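Private note to self, pasted from the team thread so I don't lose it. Backbone tokens:
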């Protein structure tokens, strides 16, 4: 999705973020063990704050995009999520899955918000060919939520904005607002490649635990790769910041099968 559209989408959240920034200055760091990343993590945001932020943005997404209520597609989402959610590492969240369609040009896309809301576009639903393939997409997005990738990006991006907000007090100038927009936009659109690969790893883990075929993720990646190669180059793209398809396929195969094929070695950057 176009980051400029997201800039408009989340503009109304700026004042909430400024309030959040001010709270950070007086907040304290909490360190907790994350079973998904298998690491002790120090975060300024509590789980209730994460959930509230995600739900607030989810309402804006549902207002600005078209929510698809096709019974057949919703039944498929419910059927798959009913098996994936119980095996997720974080049990303190309520995962919610919504199918949406972009108003101008619907593209295969999926994104996760903090605290559990996950969105999948109608175009992506049309691209998957089985429950196993869709499970690979949903598991990947759940991996982002479990690993708190969005909250970690927010914490990293918002530090300077917090200082600016404290410096200007209640006066919010246009430069600060633009800075907040950019930070908040990048929060959901530009995970690092390491984050994407970690989400792939967790997605395979959840597929295995839920009884899905994890190699379906390879088939979907290959189909998605072929689809994107046929599309015109875009300045902004959901896939712009993702690792090469070859890197993702190689990781998924390693996690799913415990080995890497010869083709994975020779197809280094595709």
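Design output:
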């Amino acid at each position: 999705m176009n980051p400029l559209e997201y800039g408009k989408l989340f503009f109304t959240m700026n004042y909430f973020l400024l309030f959040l920034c001010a709270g950070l200055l007086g907040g304290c760091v909490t360190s907790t063990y994350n079973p998904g990343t298998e690491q002790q993590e120090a975060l300024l945001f509590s789980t209730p704050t994460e959930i509230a932020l995600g739900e607030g943005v989810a309402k804006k997404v549902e207002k600005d995009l078209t929510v698809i209520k096709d019974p057949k597609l919703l039944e498929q989402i419910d059927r798959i999520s009913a098996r994936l959610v119980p095996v997720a590492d974080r049990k303190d969240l309520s995962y919610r899955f919504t199918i949406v369609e972009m108003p101008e040009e619907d593209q295969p896309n999926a994104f996760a918000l903090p605290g559990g809301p996950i969105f999948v576009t109608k175009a992506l639903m049309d691209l998957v060919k089985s429950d196993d393939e869709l499970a690979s997409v949903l598991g990947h997005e759940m991996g982002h939520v479990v690993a708190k990738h969005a909250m970690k990006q927010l914490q990293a991006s918002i530090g300077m904005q917090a200082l600016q907000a404290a410096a200007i007090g209640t006066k919010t100038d246009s430069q600060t607002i633009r800075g907040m927009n950019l930070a908040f936009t990048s929060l959901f659109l530009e995970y690092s490649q390491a984050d994407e690969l970690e989400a792939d790893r967790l997605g395979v883990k959840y597929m295995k635990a839920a009884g899905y075929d994890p190699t379906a993720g390879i088939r979907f990646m290959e189909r998605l790769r072929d689809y994107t190669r046929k599309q015109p180059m875009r300045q902004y793209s959901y896939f712009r910041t993702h690792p090469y398809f070859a890197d993702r396929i190689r990781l998924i195969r390693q996690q799913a099968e415990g080995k890497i094929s010869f083709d994975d070695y020779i197809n280094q950057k595709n």
